Amino acid sequence: MYGVIDFSLIDTMPGGFGPFAPPAGWQGDYRQFLKARFDGDIGARQQIAVVGRILLRKIEGRPSEFLGPNAVEAKEFALSVWLSKRK
């Protein structure tokens, strides 16, 4: 269903591709958007969790690069998936 996924580039642009990208023309609270996508789409949840795990473990090779207006929030959200489990 999702095909080959490149976790090295994370797109946060509205209308972009992947679980971090809102639909074209979207406006609103980005963190709420990600939370709704994480809770409502198992494929998106898995991809977000994988990106968070890559960031957390600092896996060797090219790290994930976040692009777009919501890059900081996307990275923080992906990390929070794992950091909240450690408390």
User: Which structural class matches the secondary elements?
Assistant: mainly alpha
Mean pLDDT: 88
Low-confidence stretches: none
Percent helix, as a range, is 40-55%
How is this structure best described in words?
- This protein is mainly α.
- It has one domain (9-13, 28-86).
- The chain is built from three helices and two strands, in the order E-H-H-E-H.
- A two-stranded parallel sheet has the order 1-2.
- The longest helix is centred in the middle third of the chain and has 16 residues, at 42-57.
- It is globular, with a radius of gyration of 12 Å.
- The mean pLDDT is 88.
Structural key phrases:
single chain; two-stranded parallel sheet; mainly alpha; 87 residues
Short summary of the structure?
The chain has 87 residues and is mostly helical.
SSE topology:
Layout: E1 9-11, H1 30-40, H2 42-57, E2 65-67, H3 71-83
Parallel strand pairs: 1-2
